[in-house]
């Protein structure tokens, strides 16, 4: 056994460059495996966090992107919309599906929110129904979400940052903001999303 170790050491000394490259290959290989495992674990944790935030029984139905072949586009529930659209027939089909308890159609709408000449361009605007808060694990901090009897009327529920930046206050419930040529009354302010 001792002779084998001596022979191996002599072989390493004779071929120093080859030995260095062999060690380097082993180090790079092990490091690559560790990085891949870390990235995979990080992705799994992100998915776990999203499921915990929105609930494990939430399903988002989106139209297929006309430019892609068989895939859905968009990175999050509030991300950019694909080029296709869903209509009332699609909503009814999802609503009547077995095991579906609640359906809230939503659409991202482009435009600039303003109040008293001050414009806010830092976020998205979502059009939805009174059922939307039931689907998300997110609370209204001030005021309330609009009710079924409010649908069709011009009410808005805004985020905390919009309240602070546009209205310069935390609780602008009852104040009016302008969006796409119409005036909307602020009915509620959402609590801040947990970024952790």
Helical content (DSSP H or I, runs of 4+): 25-40%
Distance between the termini: 56 Å
Listing every helix as H and every strand as E from the N terminus to the C terminus, the arrangement reads HHHEEEEHEEHEE
Biggest sheet record: 6 strands, mixed
The helix tally amounts to 5
The count of β-strands is 8
Proportion of strand residues: 15-25%
Structural class: alpha+beta
Mean pLDDT: 77
Radius of gyration: 27 Å
- Runs in which pLDDT lies below 50 for 5 or more consecutive residues are 66-82
Shape: elongated
Give an overview in words.
The protein has 196 residues and is an alpha+beta fold. 37% of the residues lie in helices and 18% in strands. The chain contains five helices and eight strands. The protein has helices spanning 2-14, 16-54, 88-95, 132-135, 160-167; strands spanning 106-109, 113-115, 118-120, 125-128, 140-143, 155-158, 176-179, 182-190. Strands 2, 3, 5, 6, 7 and 8 form a six-stranded mixed beta sheet that branches. A two-stranded antiparallel sheet has the order 1-4. Residues 66-82 have low confidence and may be disordered.
Indicate the topology.
Blueprint: H1 2-14, H2 16-54, H3 88-95, E1 106-109, E2 113-115, E3 118-120, E4 125-128, H4 132-135, E5 140-143, E6 155-158, H5 160-167, E7 176-179, E8 182-190
Parallel strand pairs: 6-8
Antiparallel strand pairs: 1-4, 2-3, 2-7, 5-8, 7-8
């Amino acid at each position: 056994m001792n002779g084998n170790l001596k022979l191996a050491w002599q072989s390493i000394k004779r071929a120093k460059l080859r030995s260095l490259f062999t060690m380097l290959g082993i180090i790079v290989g092990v490091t690559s495996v560790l990085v891949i495992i870390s990235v995979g674990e990080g992705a799994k944790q992100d998915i776990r966090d999203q499921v915990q935030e929105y609930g494990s029984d939430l399903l988002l139905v989106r139209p297929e992107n006309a430019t892609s072949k068989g895939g859905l586009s968009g990175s999050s529930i509030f991300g950019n919309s694909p080029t296709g659209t869903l209509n009332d027939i699609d909503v009814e089909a999802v609503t009547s599906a077995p095991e579906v308890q609640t359906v809230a159609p939503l659409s991202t709408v482009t435009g600039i929110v303003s109040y008293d000449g001050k414009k806010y361009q830092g976020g998205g605007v979502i059009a939805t129904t009174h059922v939307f808060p039931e689907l998300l694990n997110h609370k209204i901090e001030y005021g309330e979400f609009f009710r079924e009897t409010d649908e069709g009327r011009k009410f808005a529920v805004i985020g905390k940052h919009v309240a602070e930046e546009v209205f310069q206050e935390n609780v602008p419930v009852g104040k009016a903001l302008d969006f796409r040529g119409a005036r909307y009354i602020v009915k509620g302010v959402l609590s801040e999303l947990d970024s952790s």
